[in-house]
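Reopening this ticket.

The earlier resolution said the output was attached, but the attachment link was broken on my side. Pasting everything inline this time so it's all in one place.
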Amino acid sequence: MYYVEKTIPIINGLEIEYLNYHTLTQVRIDYINKEIEVNIASAETLADLQQGLIRKINAYMFNYALIDRTKPIDFVALYLLTQIQGTVFENCDIRECEEIINDEI
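Inline output:
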């Protein structure tokens, strides 16, 4: 699982909470129009993220120029999101960790 670690203020109803770990839960790619739509799950701790204890999910849509199809699509989509100037994810480092959500399946 790929994720970014950054404290981001997220509106939850009428309150703002600060969540630190963010990963993709869904990626949709439109190859003709060169658009990517992602759902990003945010959690307070890395352990929460790994266990699927998500506090908030937000959707983002953006355009891209090129996609490296030799790399995992979740990495590529997250990388492209971190390259967009002016977003909360701009210049974030992408990290990888073991996903433990499905260990019991």
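Reporter confirms the inline version is readable. The chain has a mean pLDDT of 92. Helices lie at 46-51, 73-82.
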